[in-house]
Each structure stands twice: as structure tokens, then as C-alpha cells.
Amino acid sequence: MTVAVASIHLPDEAATLACGHHLARAIHEKGVIYIEGDLGAGKTTLCRGILRGLGHRGAVKSPTFTLVEPYEMGDLRVYHIDLYRLSDPEELEYVGIDDYFSIDGLCLVEWPEKGVGYLPTDDLWIRLEVADKGRLLTWRSDSSLGEEMSRKLGGSKLNT
Ligand code: ADP
Ligand code: MG
Questions:
Q1: Is the pTM here over 0.90, yes or no?
Q2: What is the pLDDT of residue 97?
Q3: Number of other CB atoms surrounding residue 68 within 10 Å
Q4: Distance CA 108, CA 3 (A)
Q5: DSSP state for residue 145 in the 8-state scheme
Q6: How far is the C-alpha of 41 from the C-alpha of 84, rounded, in Å?
Q7: Which positions of the chain have pLDDT values less than 50?
Q8: What is the 3-state secondary structure (H, E, C) of 82-111?
Q9: Atom of ligand 1 nearest to the CA of 39
Q10: How many Å lie between the centroid of ligand 1 and the Cα of residue 1?
Q11: Strand order in the sheet with 76-82
């Protein structure tokens, strides 16, 4: 598999949400997406776009304090995880994080670098950073599912 890193400029919040929508079209029932970036980089906004793209109509709360926010859209389960407040990756064992990853569902993980050694490998790796007034989104696919997601992201460049 070729591992390519690509990036896209997202000029405003609407572009980040639209990007999430595109990505959602590649999501069937399971997968792991890592989303890195500083506070305020737009990680939760992207997750909101993905969740809305998957059909979620309600609010999307940041799971900073709860660690995990679960969603169900029909048969699809989505776990929105934020490891920002984790001080030691070992804590993940005590909170039973494996349960989320062993279920066939989609896991969106903000701050995956804080869970190194205790997370399953990702299908898609994403990084967000502030660039000009907007954001730069960089991604890499790490599996064939990630490859499919990567194609949707590439396509979003043409359509937003
Ligand atoms: P994080 O989860 O990485 O801390 P958030 O998703 O909460 O960040 O977003 C922080 C702020 O960045 C929000 O006010 C959001 O509207 C804004 N934002 C998201 N995407 C963009 C973008 N492409 N351009 C400008 N602002 C953005
Ligand atoms: Mg966040």
C-alpha cells in the first residue's frame, strides 16, 4: 500500500464541517480515526462534521471531561473520544477503553498521542493546525479503509 500524506486548506469552520461530511461517506461500520492538533485546531469541529454527515441531528459535545461520548445512528455506533485530560496512557486500561475499540464501530480519537501504547492502530491519521485565518488539514491513510477515506477527503478539495 502506498502511504501518501496529503493536505487541504480549510478557510473557515464551514469548510471543516464540509470536510467531515465528505469523510463520513467513506464510513460504513467501523474504523479508527486519529485526530491530532493543538487546542482550538478544529478537531471537535471535524468530528461534528463527521457525525452530522453520518446522520446525527443533535448536539455534539466535546468529550474533554467525559473522555467518551457515544452515538448511535441506526446500526452504526460511533465513539467520540478525547484524551486531552489523560495524564498517563495507562489510565486507559482502568476506564475500559478496550470495550469501545473491540465493538464494531467507528472511533474518532482526539489527542491520540496521549494514549500511545493503549490504542489500536488507526485507519486514518489526521492533523489540524492553524494556517492563515483557517486551518491546514493533513492526513495519511494507514489501511485500505483509510485509503477509501483518504479518497473522500481528496474529493472534498474539489467540492468545498
Ligand atoms: P479543538 O477540538 O481542536 O480544540 P474546536 O473544534 O473546538 O477545536 O475548534 C476551535 C475553534 O476553531 C472553533 O471556534 C471553530 O469554529 C474554529 N474552526 C474550526 N475550523 C476552522 C477553520 N477551518 N477555520 C477557522 N476556524 C475554524
Ligand atoms: Mg476538541
A1: yes
A2: 78
A3: 17
A4: 21
A5: H
A6: 13
A7: 160
A8: ECCCCCCCCHHHHCCHHHHHHCCCEEEEEC
A9: 4
A10: 32
A11: 5-10, 134-141, 124-131, 31-36, 106-110, 76-82, 68-73
